[in-house]
TrEMBL record:
Keyword Signal set for record: yes
Key word Lipid metabolism present: no
Species whose genome carries this gene: Leptospira stimsonii
This protein's name: DUF1554 domain-containing protein
Location of the DUF1554 domain: 85-208
Length: 236
């Protein structure tokens, strides 16, 4: 469709230029030399105006995201998270999960490994967003559950939530509420993160509970990485 419109536009423009050339030649033959330049310039200006008014507007790509268009959504996965495939693997869980809201959008896992993704290096990012790496929450942004209406809370200027939340990240799913986070209760990175989310063998990770409004949403302790838990996903 785009190619056809472009061809039609090019043919229309060529026809205009040809007609304008004929007009210019006719005027040149009929007018005295002192008027030729004036008439030719007038024809050129008219031609340019016609090209502008008949050309097809160039298509624009709108990369609208919730960061600029409205509240962002959060959801907890229905499936248990894959903890041995790195941050990318956890993000892939978000992209593929059945709980992901309709309408497209990119979702990333609310987890930290301290190196590739982190929220803060000091409690609640005391020095600002410069402490973050590939962090999934935006500063001063309202977040809602996947239904688009239940408000979870609004982040601070440092890109983290203050507690208590208005509502938990999500209600209990299938009788369970554990989520892997790799976070401490103050948004700093935990030393326990399944060895940078790379293995389930003989390692632990910090986990929280997604239906809690306190900082227990981030961490209530650690558990062996062979255990089953979900992950919270954040719209970007």
């Amino acid at each position: 469709m785009i190619l056809r419109d472009r061809i039609q536009t090019d043919l229309k423009t060529a026809a205009i230029l040809f007609a304008a050339t004929l007009v210019a030649l006719s005027l040149s033959a009929c007018k005295s030399d002192e008027n030729k330049d004036t008439e030719t310039i007038a024809v050129i200006l008219v031609t340019q105006n016609l090209q502008t008014t008949t050309s097809t507007p160039s298509s624009t790509t709108t990369n609208a995201t919730c960061a600029t268009t409205g509240p962002c959504k959060l959801f907890a996965t229905s499936a248990n998270a894959t903890v041995n495939a790195g941050i990318a693997g956890l993000d892939a869980n978000c992209a593929a999960d059945v709980n992901k809201p309709s309408g497209g959008g990119t979702y990333k896992a609310l987890v930290s490994d301290g190196t590739n993704r982190r929220a803060c290096t000091t409690a609640n990012c005391g020095t600002g967003t410069g402490e973050s790496i590939d962090w999934v929450l935006k500063p001063n942004k309202q977040y809602v559950r996947s239904n688009g209406t239940t408000v979870i809370g609004t982040t601070t200027a440092n890109g983290v939530f203050s507690f208590p939340l208005t509502n938990g990240f999500q209600a209990t799913i299938n009788g369970t509420n554990g989520i892997w986070t790799g976070l401490n209760t103050n948004w700093t990175s935990s030393a326990s993160d399944c060895t940078d989310w790379s293995t389930t063998i003989a390692t632990n990770a910090s986990f929280g509970v997604h239906d809690d409004t306190s900082n227990a949403a981030l961490s209530v302790g650690t558990a062996g990485c062979s255990n089953a838990a979900k992950v919270v996903c954040v719209e970007q």
